[in-house]
Structure formats: structure tokens, C-alpha cells
Amino acid sequence: RPLNLMLPSGKFVGLAIEAHGLNPNAVKAMKEAGIDFSNQTSDIIDPKILNNANLVVTLCGDAADKCPMTPPHVKREPWGFDDPQ
């Protein structure tokens, strides 16, 4: 269920619990898929962005467990999978 189909007019922001920089394997895999995100950044969760969100998707169990509490109006959906590293 791609987010662009679920929320076609949405703004998507990727944030993390800790900033680690970009994973070179992820950059390579995305480039092979025709997507260049080599100039993206690894950003820490911003409470202001979180408070203005409609939906928070966590992508691994660690994030689901450690993600700050989301405000009551924010839908939270875990899409758990193993860390590819």
C-alpha cells in the first residue's frame, strides 16, 4: 500500500529516532530503481512536525517501541520489517 496511493495529495516527511546518515546500500538500491535520494538527509523526529501530522508510519519494531507518543489526533500505523543492514 504505497503512501502516494493512500494520501495522493499528502506531504511525506521521513524522520528517525536517531540520525545515522544515509545507508549506502539504500542509496544504491534506490538508484537502481531510478530514484536518486543521495542528497537527502537523516533527520531526527521534530515534535512540531509530529504534532501537525495526520499519519505516522513506523517501519521497524525498534521505531514502533521507541517512537515518541503521538498526539491523539495522529493515526499511527506500524509497517514492521527487518532492518536490511
Automatic annotation (TrEMBL):
The Gene Ontology biological process annotation of the record reads:
response to arsenic-containing substance
Domain of life per record: Bacteria
List the Pfam families hit by this protein, alphabetically: LMWPc
Ordered alphabetically, the record's keywords are: Arsenical resistance
Q: Where is the Phosphotyrosine protein phosphatase I domain?
A: 3-85
**What's the protein called, per UniProt?**
Arsenate reductase
Q: Which organism is it from?
A: Bacillus sp. As3-2
Name the gene: ArsC
